[in-house]
UniProtKB/TrEMBL annotation:
Organism, scientific name: Trichonephila clavipes
GO terms, molecular function: DNA binding
A cellular-component GO term for this protein: nucleus
Family annotation (SUPFAM superfamilies): Homeodomain-like (SSF46689)
Gene Ontology BP terms: DNA integration; DNA transposition
Name the UniProt record assigns to this protein: Transposable element Tcb1 transposase
Amino acid sequence: MPGKRARRHFSQLSEFERGLIIGMKTVGWSTHRVAGQVDRSESVVRNCWDQWTREGTHARKTGSGATRKTTRREDRRIVRQALVDTTVTRSTIRADVGLAIVPQTTYRHLAEANLKSKRPFRALPLTPDHRQLRLQWCQARLMWNVTDWQKIVFSDESRLVLGTDDNRVRVWRRPGERYNSPPTLFYVTLPAQLV
């Protein structure tokens, strides 16, 4: 499998593989031969050996990475705001925290808490009267043909968005919290006599 082998070349070396590389290079094996034996690229073998000869260690250096812009307390505050008010936006959370952080930071902290931005569950609260009126409306149009139905415009079809923001309310939820979360938004787009 060439794809699997190519991905392996980019994965991190384990401690065992580092020890193998150093052992084989110490007894005089060529870089090409060692790379074939451990199924890694020659540059990986060369870098490992160079680190051993230069520093005397094969331990992987910890990456410096970017410095954290928020403290653990601020991280908890971000998550708590999303849990208390599930319809709060990332920009509102950022403003409440009071730090100059980018939206991706807020999103990352919420994702670490297993919160995703999702559309709220749309439900129509139907009472027995509503059901009766809907049934009567359907029975009155039972014998309509295609020409009659072409004169009807349904208002609950998909929305068309020309810009980047559709102004749709979104909520923060963990997986599986679709129905047991309090913010269920109700939309009614039926004629007035049916509601």
